[in-house]
Amino acid sequence: MPRATEPRPLTKTEARRIWLHAQRLDTNEPFGAGPQAVAAAVDHLGYVQIDTIHVIERCHHHILYSRIPAYARADLRQAQSVDKSVFEYWTHALSYVPAKDFRFFVPAMREHRREGHRWFASVKPEDTRKVMRLLRRDGALTIRDIEDDVLTEKEHLWQSRKPSKRALQLAFYTGEVTISERTGMLKTYELMTRHFGWDKPPKPAASAEITAYLLDRALRSQGVVSLDSICHLDAPSKGAVRRLIDTRVRRGELTPVALEGAGKQEHWVQPEVLEANGAVPGGEGDGLVHILSPFDPLVIQRKRTELFFDYGHRFEAYVPKEKRLFGYFALPVLVGEDIVAAIDLKTDRQNKKLLMQKWSWVGKGAARSARKDYKRRIEEELDRFERFQLAE
Question: What's the rounded Cα separation, in Å, for the pair 161 and 179?
Fold first, then answer.
């Protein structure tokens, strides 16, 4: 008999099905509706990435819309600013994360407070003292509320010329302030303790707890995991995570799988997930169409997406026009269990319509026999997507 730890073969079809279920993209309304659905979605996914690009609706709203059909932007505002069930912090990028997970981020905050932050090394102590004094005296504020800054030269493209903004950003990373509200991309900063009503922040999680948190978060939202997918843009965590994986494999809590096409890259699945989802025929998800954000968790790890879906997404916003394949801001289209198209869209808010810049068939969508049916279904979803884009 093979050893218990010998990898079990896993087809791409099985792996896709497990991942789609973990992402809750195989069910029509997996989290319900309203601010509670936002909190539940962020909790399940672990984080929802934030980005400034506004060609169509910004990605944090788009990612939530893909899993909450009745999603309204006000639901996220309620969750962040009123219910305080989510807050903003850095994962692999700036993201919404569950407020209940706050303690897992406290060690990073303390490290930045102790050692500084490489992005904000130029922040002067007097600038930090100034913004903290204003916050304590006047309450929550935006950068527009600070009018007496002496503008400075930028050190890089995305940096503000206002010293106070950089000081607020540094205070955000050190955990002294939080973003209590967003209006578009205008951030309102508030003292962390005052926003949450704490006398002091929660105790920091121990390093072993953070390692388990990273692994469990990935297992919940990815289903089939690799070391790279668990530690996306977080190479320093790989050693501890790998040791925990090995421990769980020995305990029978994780099963190694040999994923079709993955070569030597190792993957693992929880045994109960493998039994429940791996060999179950597609169900409700067969009829679903999702126009995904390029920052969606299903797409953001490009190599993983290509391995599972045989689709290599290209983010071409910063690619010269003549070298673009799919378009400036192409969105992958998931139909059932396959990514079949990439469509480059733009929202014309002035004329209240969604513009189709380019439509590219990919993967199974490239088969001409399937295109008519796919096109009809995608166009139906585009109608709904347009209503979401233009909704106030």
Answer: 20
Cβ proximity of 391 and 350 under 8 Å: no
Point out which residues pair with 97 in neighbouring strands. 87
Band the pLDDT of 5: cuts 50, 70, 90. Answer: confident
Distance CA 67, CA 293 (A): 12
Amino acid residing at 57: E
> Do the strands 330-335 and 289-291 form a parallel or antiparallel pair, or are they unpaired?
antiparallel
CA–CA distance, 207 with 192 (Å, rounded to integer): 23
Alpha helix ranges (H) inside 174-329: 192-196, 207-222, 227-230, 238-250, 271-277, 302-309
**Token pair in block for residue 234:** 């977080």
Q: What angle do CA 106, 301, 320 make, to 5 degrees?
A: 115
Q: Which residue has the higher pLDDT, 368 or 324?
A: 324
How far apart are the C-alpha atoms of 296 and 299, rounded to whole Å? 5
For residues 35 and 42, what is the distance between their CA atoms, to the nearest angstrom? 11
Alpha carbons 91 and 56: distance in angstroms, whole number: 23
Q: Which residues pair with 351 in a beta bridge?
A: none
In angstroms and rounded to an integer, the radius of gyration of the C-alpha atoms of the chain is 22
DSSP assignments along 27-52, one per residue: SSSTT-SSHHHHHHHHHHHS-EE---
- pTM of the predicted protein model: 0.94
* Contact criterion met (CB below 8 Å) for 95 and 41: no
Structure tokens at 49: 């990435």
